[in-house]
From TrEMBL:
Pfam families: Aa_trans. GO terms for molecular function: symporter activity. The keyword Transcription regulation does not apply. PANTHER family: OS05G0424000 PROTEIN-RELATED. It comes from Glycine soja (Wild soybean). This is Amino acid transporter AVT1I isoform B. InterPro entries: AA_transpt_TM. Carrier protein involved in proton-driven auxin influx. Mediates the formation of auxin gradient from developing leaves (site of auxin biosynthesis) to tips by contributing to the loading of auxin in vascular tissues and facilitating acropetal (base to tip) auxin transport within inner tissues of the root apex, and basipetal (tip to base) auxin transport within outer tissues of the root apex. May be involved in lateral roots and nodules formation. GO terms for cellular component: endomembrane system; plasma membrane. Keywords: Amino-acid transport, Auxin signaling pathway, Cell membrane, Membrane, Symport, Transmembrane, Transmembrane helix, Transport. It comes from the Eukaryota. The chain crosses the membrane at residues 37-56, 76-97, 104-125, 145-166, 178-202, 222-246, 258-276, 282-305, 317-338. Residues 4-337 form the Amino acid transporter transmembrane domain. It is a multi-pass membrane protein.
Length: 351
């Protein structure tokens, strides 16, 4: 509900200044060039890291599907997961060359359908393939609360692309309805998978439920195929704002060949990052705690208060915004500390 509400605040900011085209524009109107620079930095790093997460997801699931598989390019040998990350990037690459968000909308629709198929496969594994829903574990783990909330934040971190999406709509007034449908649908999908995962695997549930499913079952393979397809439908949408910002900075990039080069360079850099730090769950928690909370909870509230004097008057709206700010600051500080500590510890173990 908090993330949905701050999405509406972004829309209200844009309605007050019709010339606003992007999230950084909101920062500039509210706080000048410094506000624009800060928001731009946070957004583009967040979108970049989420794109990295999608590639890690691809590598993990393809390795589950095809274990002990290695790749050879001349004298160079690439281990299974790393090779799958590179292979997935090559398949994703053509979708990044699409510059129209209208065209990408049809690609993203496939992601929604794939999520529904994934839920069906997980239910089938539990009910028909014999895994069952009887696993017990620690029902409440208070030590994991901050990390869990950071993961929630990651799941609803679409605010960086919301202004871009609003400007791509034929009827901007329908954005509020689109937002609530998307958030309700996402919550149902996330909640269903979470409950199924806990009921099936309890404390043994891994960072991705597909990694727990029995390898040789057809339903498991279908679930993993569904998970593999999902990043293909989302990756291009995530890096489009980054590419657009680069293209607007240098007018030469409006030429199509150079635009393709820009998008390809972004993809290559996300591949390198995915190979360097392949810890899906902890990277997700870090993005959620540090970037998603800041961009999706803190910045919308602060910018809205700055741009709208009436909102600073004591009332229900101001109380809601203050509560969101306090919750966001708490999650951000504690969640970032814990996630960074987990990442550092795992990097030490890997080395």
């Amino acid at each position: 509900m908090m993330f949905w509400y701050t999405g509406l605040l972004l829309q209200r900011c844009m309605n007050k200044h019709p010339l606003i085209k992007s999230y950084p524009d909101i920062g500039e109107v509210a706080f000048g060039l410094r506000g624009r620079a800060m928001i731009s930095t946070f957004i583009y790093i967040e979108l970049f890291l989420v794109a990295v997460e999608l590639l890690i997801l691809e590598g993990d699931n393809l390795e589950k599907l095809f274990p002990h598989m290695n790749f050879k390019i001349g004298s160079l040998r690439i281990e299974g997961k790393s090779g799958f990350v590179v292979l997935a990037a090559l398949v994703i690459l053509p979708t990044t060359w699409l510059r129209s968000l209208g065209a990408l909308a049809y690609v993203s629709l496939g992601g929604v359908m794939v999520s529904i198929v994934l839920i069906g496969c997980v239910v089938w594994v539990g009910e028909v393939d014999g895994v069952g829903f009887h696993e017990s574990g620690q029902l409440v783990n208070w030590e994991g609360l901050t990390t869990a909330v950071s993961l929630f934040a990651f799941c609803y971190c679409a605010h960086g692309v919301m202004p871009t999406l609003i400007n791509s709509m034929n009827d901007r007034s329908q954005f509020g309805k689109v937002l609530i449908v998307c958030f309700v649908a996402s919550t149902i999908i996330y909640g269903t998978i979470a409950v199924l995962g806990y009921a099936m695997f309890g404390d043994y549930l891994m960072s991705q439920i597909t990694l727990n499913l029995p390898s040789k079952k057809i339903s498991t393979k279908l679930a993993i195929y569904s998970t593999i397809i999902n990043p293909f439908t989302k990756y291009a949408v995530l890096i489009t704002p980054i590419a657009n910002a680069i293209e607007e900075k240098w007018l030469l990039c409006k030429r199509k060949p150079i635009a393709i080069l820009v998008r390809t360079t972004i993809l290559v850099s996300t591949v390198l990052m995915a190979l360097f730090m392949p810890f899906f769950g902890y990277v997700m928690a870090f993005i959620g705690a540090f970037f998603s909370v800041t961009i999706s909870l803190l910045f919308p509230c602060i910018c809205y208060l700055k741009m709208n004097k009436a909102a600073r008057q004591f009332g229900l709206e101001l109380i809601i915004i203050i509560v969101i700010l306090f919750v966001g600051i708490f999650i951000g500080i504690l969640g970032t500390y814990l996630s960074v500590r987990h990442i550092v510890n795992h990097m030490k173990l890997c080395s």
